[in-house]
Amino acid sequence: MCIRDSPYRLYNIGNQSPVRLMDMIRVLEKHSGMTARLQMLPMQPGDVPATYADASDLQRDLGFTPKTTIDEGVRRFVEWYRRYYNEELPEKGAYQFFRVKKRAEDTEMSGA
Known about the structure:
Blueprint: E1 19-20, H1 21-32, E2 35-41, H2 56-62, H3 70-85, E3 95-101, E4 108-109
Helix pairs in contact: 1-3
């Protein structure tokens, strides 16, 4: 059976605008209330220099184009997560540890 003949479809609904990794970390810090402690590392095996969502099938089949910015998407996700898991903001100065490539300013990752 060909995938096109399947009665169901999976769609990537991410925003198609790449976001720099350091910008993503800053947005996570902003909305989580935590400060990232960064360990800058060289590119690791399997790392990719840029990623983005390809929502062309979604646009073609449903006429929908995602427009949520990374800032708004992360904010709304953190709000939902805290309500769902009944969590409060972390203590001021709390840290979340991220391992980041040395050239993080050149690295992009997908927006939501």
